[in-house]
Each structure stands twice: as C-alpha cells, then as structure tokens.
Amino acid sequence: MKIARYAFAILLGLSGLGHSVGTFLFYTPGTDVFVWSLAASAFVVAVIIFNLFALSGRPEHLIVATGAALVWIGLVFGFGQAIGNLLDPRILMHAVAAGGLVAVNVIELVRGQRNAALPAV
C-alpha cells in the first residue's frame, strides 16, 4: 500500500504543481482569483502532507488524511461544475489522485480494524 500511496501522492503533487504554474501564468498577481487559486494549491500540499503522515498507520492520521482528500474531491468537482465540464482533464487528474488516496486510507483503516479485533497470540 505504501507504493500506491506514494504514486497517488506524486500524481496529486504533479496536479498541484500544474495548478500553481497555471495560477502564475493566467491570473494577475494580487487579484482575488489569484489568491484563491494559490490557496487551493496550498490545500493540495496539505492533503499530500496529511497522507504522508498516514504512512504511520495510526487511525487518527488515516482519518484526517481521508477527510482532507474527500474535501479536495468535493472542491474539485465543484470547480468542474463551475466551468461546466466535470470531465475536464484537470478535474479528472485531481479527482483520481485524491480518490486513490481515499481508497488506500479506507483499505488500511479496515485492515487495522480487522487486525485489532483479532486476539493477541
């Protein structure tokens, strides 16, 4: 699962990097849209960091990482709806990467619960 987590985190990182570059190329610095776009890029970094903390396997880290990725998926689809294209490659890249992180976290949470229910030998 570590490889999958790293792969999805790298994909999300590349998406976030593209988002940041696009912010500087297409928006005027200091405008509201520029600031909000940079804030979204910062949130992507936070999602990645939370998911790297989740490598510890601690349930509380997994839950926070899952929540952050789910929030990002919601924001991404909100943006897709705002531009009128949920199948835009930018939307799909972010959604697939964050969705992959959610899947990895849920699998690890379920495995952890299953293992916790087993008696110690």
TrEMBL record:
Top-rank taxon, per record: Bacteria
Membrane-spanning ranges: 7-27, 33-55, 62-79, 91-110
KW Membrane (keyword) present: yes
Keywords associated with the record: Membrane, Transmembrane, Transmembrane helix
Transmembrane helix keyword on record: yes
Protein name, UniProt field: SPW repeat-containing protein
Taxonomic source organism: Rhizobium alvei
